Amino acid sequence: MTDFPKTLNFNVGVLGHVDSGKTSLARALSSTASTAAFDKNPQSKERGITLDLGFSAFTVPLPEHLRESCGEKQYDSLQFTLVDCPGHASLIRTIIGGAQIIDLMMLVVDVVKGMQTQTAECLLIGQLTCSRMVVILNKTDLLPSDKRQVAIDKMTKRMHKTLENTRFKDCPIIAVAAKPGGPEAPDTDEPQGITELIDLLKAQSFLPHRDPSGSLLMAVDHCFSIRGQGTVITGTILQGSLSVNDNVEIPALKVTRKVKSVQMFRKPVASAMQGDRVGVCVTQFDPKLLERGVVCTPGSLQTLYAAIISVQKIEYYRGALNSRAKFHITVGHETVMARISFFNRVLPANENGDSKPTSQEQSANSFSFDWEFHHLDEHLTSQAEGGKGEPQQWALLEFERPVTCPPLCLVIGSRLDSDIHGNTCRLAFHGKLLEGFEDKNYTETALPRLKISKDKQKEGAVERVTDDYTVIGRNLFKKETNLQLFVGLKVTLSTGEAGSIEGGFGQSGKIKIRIPEGLKEETKQLLSSSSKKKGKGGSKNESPKLEEAKPDAQPVTIHLNFKRYIYDPHKKMVQS
């Protein structure tokens, strides 16, 4: 291995609305085109838009401010790897895939059109995945030269206003013309503002946190075979590191392969680590089987049929988030449909009767099977009066097909089937994957551990009194209900007495209720008057007083409240 100059790799995501000029900008910036670069996809060439994550790079001498922060690690050049993310909607999943490896985001905006739907979506994805951004106002050559500066200033002001409530408040905004005259124009016109942009990128660069430890996870964006050598996989290392002679697993194909050689931008290296963009040659397999996906340390990834995630709604999403609804879930490098069920926590009361989670429990990404939860029909958006933000909530995702992903990864839920051109945000919620279920029969093996309850109420009426301690109730259950399940449950009467269900009475779903403290006098009167009103019994001179006193005797109602755990196979009823 030759000892070539040490290069620090810095990943810059190029995101923006379709046709904002992202690829032209990457091309203008770039000197070394990597294998996947510049709309290599035949479908993309025809449509003139990027379909997959194109990668290209350019190298500059290491900026002074990085020399100090690098310490021992002596780099002498800085390589910007440009990850050109597609801008059109159906491919938002590709963007989310690319966004996990991005150190700095370049949001490309058409200076004439300003913010568009996808620009806003890219901004949201940026907020979830990245801490720094530069906004580029492209296509300034389309502005009439006498009004150019005024228009640029106006759009710069508008962008600052848009960003003021995001994590990118006060981020730098720069105007360029990446391809004067548009994509069809000859390459004679020099791009404008590119040198200034390179200077800005150098100034914005920092020493990214790279950790070689832990298991390998590499995002693959391209795969091809070289005769007599093996199969080459290109991509970016998301976590861990990789060396020649390592064994790696391709989970999608359920096979393990040996690493024969590693290259970084066409130069051979012995190893690579998190954040590096690499080509890895492994022993032969059919490249068509893995165009995109992940490669990892054998056995390190889970393949999940369902998962529990933390949930936060994306504020610009206008739709409702209902339990049992289906969403497109992007997790790891896959997008798959899943059914969602929301739930929140039932907090145990402490000595003072307050219920507050401890600070450890309150962290957004904590979860325990020991906790009690409550089913939600829909995601709660804000807390009761005085609360700040939305209350902590979780969701169970049940995937339509199994997905392979690393633990604790970012999860994004969206409705990618809504109108591409409609002016609405299709990203609905985001969260972290907290628990995964790898067993196909998770509904029987894992879900019963999940204590999510639903409150149930039933109401019926007292039909008659048998003695001071017993009444017969009706309308509480259907004829076919198995009343044995309800024996022993507590009920209350609308007049205040508490009792419990002793069992069924007759065949029509009526029940016998025992009142251990006995019925109150008023209740007995009420019940005798309402039964006498039916015209049964009593001599002519006995009842008129009662009936006059109570012309509208209200029936006495019976209330039964209990909860049931959704995933309890025995469907037990529980009362607090």
From TrEMBL:
GO terms for molecular function: GTP binding; GTPase activity; translation elongation factor activity. GO terms for cellular component: cytoplasm; nucleus. Translation factor required for the incorporation of the rare amino acid selenocysteine encoded by UGA codons. Replaces the eRF1-eRF3-GTP ternary complex for the insertion of selenocysteine directed by the UGA codon. Insertion of selenocysteine at UGA codons is mediated by SECISBP2 and EEFSEC: SECISBP2 (1) specifically binds the SECIS sequence once the 80S ribosome encounters an in-frame UGA codon and (2) contacts the RPS27A/eS31 of the 40S ribosome before ribosome stalling. Residues 524-554 are annotated as: Disordered. SUPFAM superfamilies: P-loop containing nucleoside triphosphate hydrolases, Translation proteins. It is found in: Cytoplasm; Nucleus. PANTHER family: ELONGATION FACTOR TU-RELATED, SELENOCYSTEINE-SPECIFIC ELONGATION FACTOR. It holds the Pfam family euk_SelB_III. Residues 542-551 have a biased composition (Basic and acidic residues). The keyword NAD does not apply. The gene is eefsec. GO terms for biological process: selenocysteine incorporation. Residues 7-209 form the Tr-type G domain. The keyword DNA repair does not apply. It comes from the Eukaryota. Its cofactor is Mg(2+); Mn(2+). InterPro entries: eEFSec_C, eEFSec_III, EF-Tu_GTPase, EFTu-like_2, P-loop_NTPase, T_Tr_GTP-bd_dom, Transl_B-barrel_sf. Keywords: Cytoplasm, Elongation factor, GTP-binding, Hydrolase, Methylation, Nucleotide-binding, Nucleus, Phosphoprotein, Protein biosynthesis. This is Selenocysteine-specific elongation factor. It catalyses: GTP + H2O = GDP + phosphate + H(+).
